[in-house]
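Sanity check. The docking grid for nickel (II) ion depends on where the pocket ends up, so I'm generating a full predicted complex first rather than guessing from homology. Inputs follow.
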Amino acid sequence: MSQTIFTAMPTVTYEGPTSQNELAYRWYDPDQVVLGQPLREHMRFAVAYWHSLVMNGADPFGAPTLHRPWMDRDDAMQAARDKADAAFDLFRVLDLPFFTFHDRDIAPEGDSLGQSLANFHTIADYLAEKMSTSKTRLLWGTANLFTHPRFMSGAATNPDPEIFRYAATTVKHCMDVTKALGGENYVLWGGREGYDTLLNTDMGHELEQAGRFLSLVVEYKHKIGFSGQILIEPKPKEPTTHQYDFDAATVFGFLKRFGLETEVKLNLEANHALLAGHSFEHEIATAASLGLLGSLDINRGDPLLGWDTDQFPNDLQAATLAMYHVLLAGGLGKGGMNFDAKIRRQSIDPEDLVYAHVGAVDLCARGFLKAAQLVEEGRLAAALQDRYAGWNSTENAAMLRGEVALEQIAAEAEEKGLNPQPRSGRQERLENLLARTF
Ligand code: XLS
Ligand code: NI
Ligand code: NI
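Predicted complex below; grid placement will be based on this.
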């Protein structure tokens, strides 16, 4: 294999919290057993191909700033192979167990549908070869149904049924490849499934199309015996003004409507939660309470900016709360923690990618350890249990199960002369318990 920009870099290892080595893990010890499982299995970290290998630092105001060798090649297929070589070198340096990709990240668009699919399968075979000598596995695959101009008015929700067919064909092949590479999930992010103005949009029709598309995906999953999870990634806006998969709760309603709520789970992203006016832990807890927690896209937004900045996370409290809710939900199962995050435009060196991942891995691991401490101490859980304890009595449990009618509740309350007293929510005490872990 040829040399890549990462070949000379040593593999990052765990050196513990006192290490002065900036390219060592200080908190992420993959073998450390926490709550009965090694951290590696709790966290299931993944490197995102698009941010780490494809993004070139261009923004709406400026030209690319990141120049990687594979970006300047004339032969697009050779460039894709070089990029794959670099990708697997980067995975080796970071020593993380998973990666994720879109079809267009790994292989170039051709000049026909057939050629695009052929390119994709050729490079997928090349990835399979790389995976045979690598420890890194596939957390999920997905289709890029948003970059090409054909998708400017949506993919599944495009007014043109030919685009729906094109998108469906693309997803079929992406599912085939994800299965062939042993992917544990298949993700659908509705990049342009939404609208900018209702003046040109029949929302009812588009939602019908989205439901049909997802049903086709689920049917096909069963047909080919793909044992991974199908995940939808909610996002409220960007690129379109209004996106149909707004947040976890909205997607739940959509899944219910099409009878898919036991077939599809969610891939939740921190930055998308922020854009929807939620915290990450709100989205995680919502999904968990609806039985939809699938996987996480780890990043952060900038509260001062209203777009998906996809920064590497650095807020320990936010990470701890997110991890705490993952633990309360019983973990991520087949899901994982995918760094859907990109280095800033001025971070132009390959080392910057390593710094970024090392910091983010450590932050998540550290947050996880603190969350595990909160679980082990059990004080937050005890306070919660105590707050809802009233519902355990026979009469109250019966009321919750729907065994008592409204007039019966009223009659009993009036007879008793019910006079409930307010009880403290103890917010500051509970915030102190969290703060004590820092
Ligand atoms: C964009 C999304 C995207 C998905 C994969 O905002 O986060 O990167 O994760 O298509
Ligand atoms: Ni994402
Ligand atoms: Ni995003």
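Relevant for the grid: The first strand starts at residue 33 and ends at 34.
Also worth noting: The two ends are 45 Å apart (CA to CA).
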